[in-house]
Design goal:
The protein is of the alpha+beta class and about 400 residues long. Helix content is about 25%, strand content about 25%. The chain has seven helices and 19 strands. The strands form four sheets. Strands 2, 3, 4, 5, 6 and 7 form a six-stranded antiparallel β-sheet that branches. The protein has a six-stranded mixed β-sheet with strand order 8-9-10-13-14-19, sandwiched between helices. The N and C termini lie far apart (about 115 Å).
């Protein structure tokens, strides 16, 4: 018997076992690291997601998928309300919203819908109604039409709309993107229509703001609007879920006094949650502010009006007449809840509840149909005016109803 060969074989067997063990352990650690975030999202949503019963089997999931793409494989019926957030990323913006229109077979022009204060766009002299026709000297085409969503400083060619055509209006330098405060109040004024005082507020998003700054601004505005008998609330560009407290506050300002302290909305969760329902009320009183005690509210809406804006509309309907002017809303009676994974620095915000009003209704998954149609489009460019201009299409439509 060759003891040297036996000893050599034994040593090799031992080393192989050690190697397999350690290599297996390393692969296991790497596997957990690479799949950990997706597995965390999956397990969390199987408890908290509103439609958890509709989630796919774990056997069908690829846990090596990037977070946003992985979420798409989890959600029910391809819904787009749930989302993930990279907590290490910073949200930069030019600070304006635009709409692209096709102006020829191959080119587009961007119409400025609104500009946020203290933003790169405001520094570039952009304002509602102006047009961008070129970027860096090039026409806007299908190849570069997302360039206004990017980050770089840009030279833009401007135009105005006159007599049915775009007229060149020089150039401007659009500074690089930066963090821009998404101010909720875009415009406000008091108008007179048929001898009546009419409050007009363009509200862009539902946020409390740092140290409740935006809530405080709303309270101050409620005092400015004191004494109005009619009100036009412009929510045509109001997107996103926002803060429920902000919805409650604005609703408390606008609602009849008899609605104060009563149900604003009820949040209904899945059957794994305890409690399954949570009811939020309008404020009993507005500290430092004014309840306008309105009987009727005119709301300007569009296909972009969604989530918190629709929640406000639905919450007020049991207590007052809500007249919708514009175009059908998006249809999102859903609420999300943020869950943060500190280790990976990501959050997942799945739909966890639906919002119902005091009459137990949430029947706007297809959007709210309008009472009076009026939509911004190529055919109505002549009536695309600054906010507050009584000739502006949606506002003028509402004002005619007040006569």
């Amino acid at each position: 018997m060759n003891f040297r060969k036996i000893r050599y074989a034994s040593v090799m067997l031992f080393l192989s076992v050690v190697c397999l063990s350690s290599c297996g352990e390393d692969r296991s650690i790497a596997y957990r690291e690479q799949t950990g975030l997706d597995r965390w999202m999956d397990s969390l949503m199987r408890v908290n997601y509103y439609w958890y019963t509709e989630m796919p089997s774990t056997k069908k999931l690829n846990y090596f998928t990037a977070p946003a793409a992985f979420l798409k494989t989890l959600v029910y019926n391809s819904e787009t309300v749930s989302y993930v957030t990279d907590l290490t990323a910073t949200d930069y913006s030019y600070g304006f919203k635009y709409k692209l229109y096709s102006v020829s077979d191959t080119t587009y022009a961007a119409q400025v819908l609104y500009v946020l204060p203290n933003s790169p766009a405001s520094e570039a002299g952009l304002s509602r109604g102006k047009w961008i026709t070129t970027v860096e000297g090039d026409s806007i085409t299908s190849k570069n039409k997302t360039i206004l969503d990017e980050d770089d400083a840009l030279e833009i060619g401007l135009a105005t709309y006159s007599d049915g055509k775009l007229v060149a209006a020089g150039k401007s330098s659009l500074p690089t993107t930066r963090v821009v405060a998404n101010e909720p109040v875009l415009y406000h004024t008091t108008l007179t229509q048929a001898g009546k005082k009419v409050g007009y507020l363009v509200y862009n998003n539902f946020a409390n703001g740092t140290d409740d700054a935006y809530n405080k601004e709303l309270i101050a505005l409620s005092n400015e609007f004191s004494g109005v008998s009619e009100f036009v609330l412009d929510l045509r560009y109001a997107q996103g879920e926002g803060d429920l407290e902000n919805v409650q506050l604005l609703g408390s300002i606008l609602a009849p006094s008899t609605a104060l302290g009563k149900t604003c909305c009820t949040l209904k969760y899945n059957n794994k949650q305890n409690p399954q329902t949570v009811t939020k009320t309008f404020l009993s009183s507005i500290s430092g502010g004014t309840n306008l005690n309105l009987e009727k509210l005119y709301v300007l809406v569009s296909g972009e009006t969604s989530a918190a804006a629709e929640l406000l509309i639905n919450s007020l309907k049991p207590y007052m007449t809500v007249v919708l002017v514009g175009a059908k809303t998006a249809g999102k009676p859903y609420g999300t809840t943020p869950y943060v994974n500190e280790a990976y620095q990501w959050s997942v915000n799945p739909v966890t509840h639906m919002y119902y009003n005091a009459k137990d209704k949430a029947d706007y998954t297809s959007g709210f149909a309008v009472d009076y149609a009026a939509a911004e489009s190529l055919s109505t460019l002549a009536t695309f005016q600054e906010f507050g201009n009584t000739g502006e299409l949606l506002l003028s439509t509402a004002l005619k109803l007040i006569e």
